Amino acid sequence: MPIFLMGLHVLLLNLDEYLFNKKRGHSPYETVSVISDGILFLIPLLIATFVTYSESWVWTYKILAGLSMLSVVKNEFFYRNLEVKERFIHACLYVLHPMILFTFYESWTHNYFKEHTYFWMVQILYFGLGMKMVIYQLIYWNYIHEKP
Questions:
Q1: How many CA atoms lie within 13 Å of 28's alpha carbon, on the beta-carbon side?
Q2: Between 78 and 12, where is the model more confident?
């Protein structure tokens, strides 16, 4: 199930980007917001993937995961005139966001990697795809996309 959730998340992010965002463009605010959302999402994943579990890290993870969720949801207050299909994709992404954060948290707290190293590799791949998306957003929307 976690692998399905991560795959669905990657698929929906790319559909949103290539079917909707490129067509309507980004405001400078949206560009900064998308990049900061990505970074805030990746930091807790980084902790769960590469930091040995300890009680001292739990609150750090939970606070960062909470900030990540708030950061993503705040965007809906600023979007105007989005197509229904794009709103649906955003709604799906908002549901997946905490599910993925929880999946990483559970695997981290239960040391799932000890017996299932393949899942750790999947999480590293997912983290890498997340980094690729943040870097892509930074480069494409700041340097490649022609502004009107």
A1: 1
A2: 12
Long-range contacts from 116-123, C-beta under 8 angstroms, 24+ separation: 119/2, 119/3, 120/49, 122/2, 122/3, 122/6, 123/45, 123/48, 123/49
Q: Are 38 and 128 in contact (CB under 8 A)?
A: no
Question: Integer distance in angstroms from the first to the last C-alpha of the chain?
Answer: 42
> How many other C-beta atoms are found inside a 10 Å radius of the C-beta of residue 137?
21
DSSP code at position 27: -
From CA 114, how far away is CA 43, in angstroms rounded?
A: 22
Would you state the pLDDT for residue 45?
95
pLDDT (tens digit per residue) in 4-30: 999 999 999 999 999 999 888 888 888
In whole angstroms, what is the distance from residue 141 CA to residue 4 CA?
29
Assigned token pair, 46:
């980084």
pLDDT at residue 122 greater than cutoff 80: yes
- Using DSSP's 3-state secondary structure scheme, residue 70 falls into helix
Q: What is the pLDDT of residue 85?
A: 95
